[in-house]
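We modelled the chain as a single entity of 475 amino acids. Its sequence is:
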Amino acid sequence: MAEIVIMPKLGFNMSEGKLVSWYKGEGDPVQKGDPIFSIETDKTAIDIESTAEGIFRRKFIEEGDSVEVTLPIGIIGGENENIDALIADVLAKLGRESSAPMSGTSPEVASEPTGEIPKVQKPVESNIMAPGGRMKITPRARRAAAEKGLNLAGLSIPGTGYDGGICEKDILNYLETAKVKASPLARKLSEVMGVDLQQIEGSGANGKVMKKDVDQAAGRAVTTAPTAETAPAQSAPPEFIDGKEIKEIVPYSGVRKIIGERLAQSKFTAPHLYFTQKVNLEKLLDLRAQINGAQEKKTSVTDYIARAVIKTLQKYPEMNSSLIGDKIYHYKSVNLGIAVAAPTGLIVPVIKEADHKSVVELSGEASVLFDKARNGKLKPEEYTGGTFTISNLGMFGIENFTAIINPPEVGILAVSATKDEPLVVKDLAGNKTIEIKPMMNITLTVDHRLIDGLLAAQFVTEIKKLLEDPIKLLV
């Protein structure tokens, strides 16, 4: 029996999914468990496996398209199975006429006998209207148009999305086609001088508008001194903006943009408050050396810090909470996130039920998650659901830093490098001496809406005590 393939919802806040790649083409056989497509979530790319077997009969979106979660993006069925009723049902649920062509196909193609796999054709022209006279356009595409200052009224934009709808890449393609080719400096200068680039004939390669063209159009004298833009077009002259030579321009999008938006939301929504302690790691390093000498699996300093944080969260459970909407959630479970630098950006694998694990068990689970994170193989359940986060930059030699809270958590611990420093030591008789000790800075960031200064000070001081008396981490 044919089955609809939908855009899955992989997270609580996920409203859209972006198709990274198809692993199956129309007409390809599909087995249960086969990866059929990959989508981009807020942190990584996830392969989605098939829950049905048969023939991949129809795909409704292309690679790079973004659609709302739970919308159909394909159909898997028998090779000669009649899927007309299924298509009609899908269209009815979407509020569209059952006779409407699917995925931009022409009426002739849509009415072909379903014994053969229909060929998907891109629409020549879109702006197909949904019921009620509304343009068929995804929220992401509408947002892209607004950001670029594009007024959609009266425009005819080719749509390659589901049922001929307009998706984000259609907006970007339309803008790219419509805009005049110009160097960044020429474009900036035209804005300053109020010159319409559409009215300028470019002298650069392939008619590209250069700075001197804008100067001439504005009636200004063009300097005769040799510049990069006066070089022959075929030499690909360097481009400048505000006196800076440009190496490349890349879009601010994808995972990097999502991370930036989440961190900005956290920083400007939650009032951050910081508390720093200096920790003497002499005893911890000695204990770690003994444990590592007694077993094959080696532990890291981060493993002991994780255990210290977990025990402290158990002592001060107010720190193991979240503010979601107008409700405060206090958690019984400690799900500890540890930030990792992955190829696509910062990601926080989460050790679930960490309060039930020993240092060695934490070390083993963290190693597996870190490897997955660096290879982009984390599943959504492995980087969501955290209740507190650790960010350790000590391995990079960073001596002190503050971290931004990972929402909706209320705290994050920044861990810096261990460095030999002079420390005043008092003996039992009260005599003071200066000794060289391995010292490390830890900085706690809290959401001041929920966490007061006294609690934060007690929390970070308790972590310091545990790290300086590490035998308590093993009991």
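As a brief sanity check on the tokenised model: The longest strand covers residues 411-426. The two ends are 56 Å apart (CA to CA).
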